[in-house]
Automatic annotation (TrEMBL):
Keywords: Receptor. SUPFAM superfamilies: Toll/Interleukin receptor TIR domain. The lineage of its organism: Bacteria, Pseudomonadati, Bacteroidota, Flavobacteriia, Flavobacteriales. This is Toll/interleukin-1 receptor domain-containing protein. Residues 131-269 form the TIR domain. Pfam families: TIR_2.
Length: 390
């Protein structure tokens, strides 16, 4: 790869910045990304290492005393259009702890329980995690409506795009089709496993569907109930009366989880979202590779988690696994590979994706985009046929 991703640490550095750095590379390893595709820059090596035209993300750590550091470097980064995340410590003192040059940046109030969010913001900016952070809440209406709404509101507040049937499906839409469509595009499912949850045919199918698509499930098991059904990607938590306000857990309209548990759940959701991405990519890559080999294609998995097919005469085709539903913005972002991989003549780039349960109207839209965009999409059900013909 010609380009490297620049992780830049500026401001008042210390124990927190070192911890964020360590956690960042732990997450990179978890996502099975090559460590050497990232370069770490701080004020000591900035002049020798920083390249203005490389993808970059800056963690700027504020100072509680207002002794701002590296302001000259911040000025250069702003002119380069680099993404900068100011991190401050007291809710009322952003203007005191962060230099004026960064007052228009959307800063993050430091919370020790939300370090995963700090890391994921950087990975999202590099396209290593989806910028849309989609969560699906699965529940039985006549048992856990109040808790489902409570979690919906808490996750929305923390910048997740949350699907809850009562809030997310427009009138006039085919209910079950839209539900499956939204599930296929989510990162994590939060399943409220109440005593009668599995008596519903649809609830059982949701577990089966999530398991088949390898979507991570955070399963909350109600008090006086047990884990009856699980999947390979299930993260179960047994609830007790003490987890609920006033220990009321069996009233669909009044039951509420305690706030400290909800905060912890949001944090775990952030962590599992990233962890689950690699396993879903693995599944898609393996399926495509098996079809490619069976059709005599010479494909190779690159460290950056995309596949290349050698066509001879220094030409390549590239196949990039997309988790969830491809968007037109995915096509634009991945067109950058043409500039990054300069040692080969790239004939074409395809985004490969699992089309199961995606609504027909959206599949037709993706097919229509293929007629107009340089970056094409290729659905899983067509892998074998396409490889036979191309």
């Amino acid at each position: 790869m010609k380009y490297k991703y620049q992780i830049i640490f500026l401001g008042s550095l210390g124990d927190l910045s070192e911890e964020i750095r360590t956690l960042f590379f732990e997450k990179v390893k978890e996502l099975k990304l090559p460590i050497d595709s990232f370069v770490v820059i701080d004020d000591k090596n900035f002049q020798s290492k920083y390249l203005g035209k490389q993808p970059s993300f800056v963690f700027y750590f504020g100072d509680k005393e207002g002794n701002f550091k590296n302001v000259d470097l911040v000025d250069r980064l702003i002119k380069d259009g680099t993404l900068i995340l100011p991190i401050y410590y007291n809710k009322e003192f952003f203007g005191t702890e962060i230099p004026k040059k960064l007052e228009n940046q959307n800063g993050l109030l430091y919370d020790p329980t939300k370090k995963d969010k700090i890391i994921n913001l950087a990975l999202e900016s590099f396209g290593k995690l989806r910028q849309t952070r989609k969560i699906f809440i699965s529940y039985k209406r006549d048992e856990s409506t109040s808790v489902a709404i409570q979690l919906y509101e808490a996750l929305e507040k923390n910048n997740f795009d949350v699907f809850l049937d009562t809030h997310s499906i427009k009138q006039g839409e085919p209910f079950q089709d839209e539900l499956w469509h939204r599930m296929s595009d989510c990162d994590v499912i939060i399943l409220l496993n109440t005593p009668e949850f599995l008596t519903s045919r649809w609830c059982k199918e949701e577990i089966a569907e999530a398991s088949a698509k390898k979507i991570g499930i955070i399963q909350l098991i109600w008090p006086e109930h047990k884990l009856d059904s699980t999947s390979e990607f299930c993260f179960p938590t047994q609830l007790y009366a003490s987890h609920f306000e006033m220990e009321v857990f069996n009233d669909k309209n009044r039951s509420k989880l305690k706030q400290e548990f909800v905060d912890e759940l949001v944090m775990n959701t952030e962590s599992i979202r990233a962890r689950n991405l690699a396993s879903r990519q693995d599944s898609l890559i393996t399926e495509f590779t098996n079809f490619a080999f069976s059709n005599g294609k010479n494909v190779t998995l690159q460290p950056e988690r995309f596949l290349t097919e050698e066509l001879g005469e220094n030409k390549r085709r590239i196949f990039i696994p997309i988790i969830g539903i491809p968007q037109s913005i995915d096509c634009n972002q991945h067109d950058e590979l043409r500039r990054e991989i300069n040692e080969f003549n790239i004939e074409s780039i395809y985004l490969i994706y699992d089309d199961v349960r995606i609504r027909e109207k959206w599949l037709k839209h993706l097919d229509w985009l293929n007629d107009y965009l340089d970056i094409k999409t290729l659905k899983k059900q067509n892998f074998n046929k396409w490889l036979q013909q191309n």
